[in-house]
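User: Predict the structure for this protein chain, please.
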Amino acid sequence: METAMNQTAQKLHEVAQSSLDGAEANTLTFPESVKMIAAAGFNGYLVDYRSGTRTYHHSNGEVFTFQGPVYPPVEAFDVEIVKGAIKEAQLLVPGYTYQGFCRKVAERGGTAGYLVSIVGKRVLYFGVNGETHTEYFPGTGRKAN
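Assistant: Here is the predicted structure, written as structure tokens:
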């Protein structure tokens, strides 16, 4: 039984790692990544720019944390910079990279991290002082605030 559990955990770890690797290599778009992890039963993930971590949460309680680059956020949260970076990502503007997105929202927009809720179909961006911006997944009928 324990071997089956370890195999399941290993497969889930591989899915989460593939999602991260795809974002970092710019081979997976955000919708593709979300679709992949949702199909494996993940309900979301948290990116913390200050610690450089990305933590995936599975519906069975499994948690997988990966270390990545640190992007020190500026103190002031600028929602217009954050919204602009999101729009560039959605449109895949020429020259777009995930690393560039992270630098822009953290180092210029003051984002300390973001929480992706697959069930809630939204991403919550947050600043170091508790400011937030909610971006609903395209096609959900909800507007960002």
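The first strand starts at residue 42 and ends at 48.
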